[in-house]
Amino acid sequence: MNCKQCGQEMRENAKFCKNCGAPIQQESAGLEGNSQDTDAGLWLFLRTRKKKFLLATAAVLVFSAGAAAALFLPDLIKDKTENQKPAVVKKTVSSVDLQDVYEMEDNKLVLDPLSVSYEDGTSQLLTDYRVYIDTLLYEMADGAIAAEDLYDGKHLVRLEWQQEGKAYQYEKTVTMEHKKDTWEKYVDLVGKTGKEIVAAYGPLGEPIFAGLGEEDWGYAYADVPSLSIQVCFPVSILDRMGEPEDYGQSDAQCVEMSGIMDTFFYNLESEMSLEDLANTLNLTLAESEAGGCTGTLSDGKLIYIGEGQVMDGIYTPDTQVRVSASEEDQPKFLDQIF
Q1: What is the signed CA dihedral for 112, 115, 116, 122, rounded to 10 degrees?
Q2: Which pLDDT score, from 0 to 100, does residue 220 have?
Q3: Predicted local distance difference test score (pLDDT) of residue 29
Q4: 6, 237, 269, 315: which is deepest, by most CB within 10 A?
Q5: Residues 298, 204: one domain?
Q6: Residue 291 near residue 239 (C-beta atoms within 8 A)
Q7: Could you tell me how far CA 174 lies from the centroid of its own chain?
Q8: 16 and 123 part of one domain
């Protein structure tokens, strides 16, 4: 007995072909014949529909895969491309050419130019950075840091900057010293007229007269606010009797000026011997009988440093300093008022 669909030989009374699965039609009458016809029709229906279903399912899967690829593939490609870009690696700082010693002149600290070297062999000139000194942030103006409150000695300096979005810093302990030879740079007003002082340093305060009743002349003292210095002009008794003169409009010459030590000299030690003071100022100083000490500047002007401020050979610098015309010049000032 052979299968009518594929021709495969089958055993007797088999209902389905083992090779193709087709139902076997038995030649019998009545209901059994109808049942076999129904089985054969059902098999043909299922086999036809199965092929169409598989084809439809495959088509749906292919379409879905294409749509998903169109939707997600660009992002996947983009992510992969971005991940393949070389990352910016933070470099290691090797050194910054901070000096070991900085000399501060006119109360200004200048660090520039500064160059940083990295361990990969590259370097750059620092142009935009922040400066911390002993953990305090210092602002920079015109390439310099105001250094009035920086004492002579060692300070921890920390620099902070950025490169390619990465933050860097570098620390070093450096020595800072205020320049000691600045005594000759003090503002010398002795011998200048009131008009010259005002033209250079701004208006004078209202005069205060002293020495009244001393023969026929005395003194007029006026402040120079911009310098924290007081200037002294000789005046006659007749001048004192009238309206107070504006010495900013006067041709009278300053015979003396006075102020505190820091007005004239930069950052002396808080306490030092008279000998050290004389060496620092490059002057010959002698103790005064009235207290303090006196000396003569290189141009012949007389200097007096604070009565009562030199005790047991130790000098305290936050005191009054007075610079007067030389003994040779003083008569010339008096001649002008008579």
Answers
A1: 160
A2: 87
A3: 42
A4: 315
A5: yes
A6: no
A7: 18
A8: no
230: amino acid identity, one letter: Q
Q: What are phi and psi of 144, to 5 degrees?
A: -135, 155
CB-based contacts of 145: which residues, under 8 Å, 6+ apart?
A: 108, 109, 110, 111, 131, 133, 138, 139
Look-up of token digits 């610098």: 317
Tell me the residue range of the domain where 28 lies: 1-84
Whether 236 and 337 have beta carbons less than 8 Å apart is answered as yes
Beta bridge partners of 172: 157
Buried (b) or exposed (e) across 35-71, using 16+ Cβ within 10 A? Answer: ebeebbeebeeeeeeeeeeeeeeeeeeeeeeeeeeee
How does pLDDT run across 102-151, given as a tens digit for each residue? 988 877 899 988 999 999 999 999 989 999 999 999 998 888 998 878 87
- Residue type for 43, please? W
Rounded Cα–Cα distance for residues 152 and 177 (Å): 5
> Which tokens hold the place of 162?
């950025």
DSSP summary character for residue 292 = S
- Section 278-284 average pLDDT: 81
Chosen domain end from 154, 178, 202: 178
Q: What is the pLDDT of residues 222-280, one digit of tens each?
A: 999 988 899 999 887 656 555 556 788 888 889 999 988 777 776 566 677 788 888 87
Q: Are residues 48 and 144 in the same domain?
A: no
Amino acid at 270: S
Alpha-carbon distance of 194 to 220, in angstroms, equals 11
pLDDT tens string 181-229: 545 557 889 999 999 999 988 899 988 888 765 566 788 899 999 888 9
Distance CA 152, CA 4 (A): 116
